[in-house]
Amino acid sequence: MRAIVFEGFKSFPVLKEVPDPTPGPGEVLLKVAGAGACHSDVGLFHDFPEDPTGLMSPPFILGHENSGWVEALGDGVTGIERGAAYLCYGPIGCGRCRACSRGQDTYCERPGDVGYLANGLGRDGGMAEYMTVPARNLVPLGDADPVDAAPLADAGLTPFHAIKRALPHLAGGGKSALCIGLGGLGLVGVQILTALTGAKIIATDMKEEAMKQAESFGATTVPGGENQVEQIRELTDGRGVDAVFDFVGVDPTIKLAASVVAQRGALTVVGIGGGTYPWNFFGLPYEVNFSSTYWGTIEDLHDVVAMYRAGQITPAVERYSLDDGLEAYRKLRDGELDARAVVVPHS
After folding, report:
1. What's the average pLDDT block by block, 10 residues per block, for the chain (347 residues)?
2. Exposed, middle or buried: residue 142 (CB in 10 Å: 0-12, 13-18, 19+)?
3. Which one of 10, 190, 220, 245 is least enclosed by Cβ atoms within 10 Å?
4. Which residue range is the domain that position 283 belongs to?
5. Are residues 128 and 169 in the same domain?
6. SS3 121
7. What are phi and psi of 291, to 5 degrees?
């Protein structure tokens, strides 16, 4: 079969022929419907000089946002319908520790025992015609479009988990939430906040088109640049924002988040931009919950799929054939995409 393979750090991926995969015990073989191109992939082949985890040794097939139809079952797999469409939970843990027992493989206590992080992150992913997935990692899609669903495995799951943790800060009247960065995660985050809360939703970005999309989902937008902090605080009558979600995670966006969060509010850094913040006792309002999150749980992904099937989440998607998959990655690397690129291997 053909696949987009990551062969080395600081090296652009290649489209090549690879052996067809075979599902092992407890696994299924998926005919890939869609595979989302995530900026984390760009980090692998463009940004990182070497493996930052020790668990992503090349070569492997890229793609950790995947959906597909069940083609075959490995030994011991029951309760999975051949031909049915599923969304894949990407992280793969040891399955025995406390984190894995609650379906939060992202925080597996024994990742070294596994040898990789996820499908598409150390283990072969979905930028291919077929892939293998642990049966426990499948979330049924029913009759929902599996191609457009693919990015939700990360771009939906990650903001959902971050927002779910902060919901107590948004309970009650007169609450507000801020999404910083309106890429794939941020725009889905606006939709999730609209569906789950009654808060005033504020969104900020440098791209006018992204802010127009956020407005269509119910957000009030503030452009980046001069007076950004003052404009955001004015929208909260000077109180500050009850729950701030930084979907970028670089120094300036974390500084912005800290400048507008309310006393006893929540500031969650979701984006893996490598930013830092010089914390001191008087640098933030009192009792701010300053935290980070990474991906989410299998249970969370079931909730995300339910919202997708109910029409509460509509990811913006640009479809590419497998032949054009490398062009999708080039556009992602160069900042030329206005939607999530999804590779459709069987188009």
Report:
1. 97 97 98 96 92 94 98 97 97 97 96 97 98 98 97 98 98 96 95 97 95 97 95 97 97 98 98 92 94 97 98 96 98 93 96
2. exposed
3. 10
4. 157-292
5. no
6. strand
7. -150, 175
